[in-house]
Amino acid sequence: METLTTPEGSRFSDLERLRRPPRRTTGTAFARALERVDEISAFQLGRLKLSQIPPNRMAALARYALGSKAALLERAAEPKRTAMLTAVMRHLEAKAIDEALDLFQVLMASRLLNTAKRKTEKERLSTMPQLEKASRLVARAWEMLVEELETVEEHGTDVDVAALWAALEEVAPRAAVRTAAATVVSLVPEGEDAAGIAMRAALVTRYNTVKPFLALLGESNALSAASGGKRVLAGVRALPALARRKVSVKPLLPREVDDKLVPPTWRKAVYANPDLPQGAVDRDAYVVCVLEQLHRALNNRDVFATPSHRWSNPRARLLEGAEWEAVCEDVLAALSLDMPVEEHLADLVRGLDAGWKQLLERLEEAGPAAKVTIEVQDNGRAKLNVDKLGALGEPKSLASLRKRVEKMLPKIDLPDLLFEVHFWTGFLDVFVHLGDGTTRMKDLATSLVALLVSEACNIGLTPVVNPAHEALTRARLVHVDQYYLRADTITAANAKLIEAQAQVPIVQFWGNGLLASVDGLRFVVPVRTISSAPSPKYFGFKRGITWLNAVNDQVAGIGQMVVPGTPHDSLHILDALLNLDGGVKPEMGREGRPTPLGAAFAEYGRIAKTEHLLRVVDPVDDTYRRQMNRQLTVQESRHQLARDVCHGKRGTIHQAYRDGMEDQLGALGLALNAIVLWTTKYIDAAVEQLHPEGHEIREEDIARLSPLKHRNLNLLGRYSFTASTPAAGALRPLRDPDAPELDEDEDGQR
User: Fold this and answer.
1) How much is the pTM?
2) CA atoms of 481 and 485, how far apart (whole Å)
3) CA-based diameter of the chain, in Å?
4) What are all long-range contacts of 724-733, with beta carbons under 8 Å and residues at least 24 apart?
5) Among candidate residues 182, 222, 402, the one with its CA nearest the CA of residue 306
6) CA 728, chain centre distance (Å)
7) What pLDDT score does 748 carry?
């Protein structure tokens, strides 16, 4: 209960202080993050066994307590107050560990690994002119030597050393050749991974960055290890003693370190420092080496954290024994794996065999006109060349239909669009109070629409606040934002929109929802945060995040997640597809040495990948490739719509914490789905109206209409939050496409 009181001389209670995640990416900030973990862990609530309490109830209590001020929690009656404090401290312990390890990963990547890599690359480039000059001289001397030796060999005479030296002097002085050779040797170190060795040598200079947190990291009880990470964790446990050791007085000896933690690229830096006594180990190099191994082990989850949400042990969630037997049949049926293993694998083999034979038959059938050719390279390996996919022509009927439909769409402001979509679907009704799961507030829909516009358009609260309207006062909007607008309610609202999108008749011309794509949209984050990362290609000298979103072939956004920086999308695609907001689940056709189970999963996955590639490289039919290309176009068009909607603050995200980023971009995704649903319904109505008017409407043209065009949608100006929805069951009147007046931006590209 002491965490609810405000200490003398402080502006915040201990609970509010512990709720604040780290924002700086420095060694000192990581040390403070570990101290925060230790302070929360001291309550020993994270490891209490509360299996009899439903997890959803614990999560709801924690969310409510996190969203409430300490004074409100202090006034709560017992036992509710104790329950909320227990839930929030358990949640905070896992969250603090997650944030500390997130900071460690960012610190290792941005302040150590990337910094050392840039330094070595810069040094390498600075020596390039010197190396090129020396290499040219050595090459000319070698060519002369080879020519002279070949002449001697051809005539069968003895080697005249004096003549060789004289010929060499004609190329360059002997001293110059010797100096050039020495330069090449010094600038091109021995070993296969010279760049890696040089980078590790540069990493050693970053020891002072990691020194502040070595003791706390080594003594942390949050870390545990699987069999593959026990050696790394033992090395981490030894770091505090190494950090305290005065190596200038008592040098570190090889027997005092774990040699198996030192990979080949580190051996020179660890064991061959010329500034240390013979046989001494470079303590700084060894410490940074161990931290790099920890960095990799955490990514592989060979080392994991407990309790944790993002860095926990994935093996602990595997079922075995009676628990697995109880759900085995249902799980296998859900994965379409209900046949015996031998029969299932044999069926896959037959499918692969048929696919390869079909490819061969189609190559022979197509002959010279095949869209795929096989080229045998000089090294004997076969290379598959696939012809570039040409653009589909746009028939006049499609151009005419697209133009008429776009002109028929009613003009509308974003708030009115959201009100109308709510009138159709009731998607705003799922935004319930954090505490009791009910909706008791008058005009809550108005407040929610204002907040969605504020978050999606990235304009803040000021443009949507109206002190004369109770539902639009700043205090009301802050309250609704805190207690109603959150990840789980956004997900539930999205599910309603996805379901409604699938029910619009015209959607069936676009797809059945079984095809989906995942792509990332990059946002610069100009505020100090550990949840962003650098990427010069996308963010210049700033840092940013990637908003991964999954879109199905019905043009509905079915899932999303936020990741720092610009990691490979493939690392997170499975997470995005397994945690969908709604809709039909699409058909889904470690670094280091994998475990036998991991290798089995990898080989099993290659079967589906091979079948996919065989369809991609079909020598005759490019339908599958065009289907993929169309989905890519849908994804890029949705990203452009997202950019236009999120126009405020030049499209940069100013949230300092990951939860805020996820909530804001979740609101953007929800607004995009609402826009797509509204446009889809009106496109369907326009096509239905054009049919009886005698216009040529071809199914293949309908399939190429897009609900991502938005010339009719106004996103700028003053916002009105007075609902103006049509009468029950009706749509707004469609515009006359033959009217002489043009849209203000008719000649624009929107």
Assistant:
1) 0.79
2) 5
3) 108
4) 724/416, 724/419, 725/416, 725/419, 725/420, 725/423, 726/420, 731/681, 731/682, 731/685, 732/410, 732/412, 732/420, 732/682, 733/410
5) 222
6) 42
7) 42
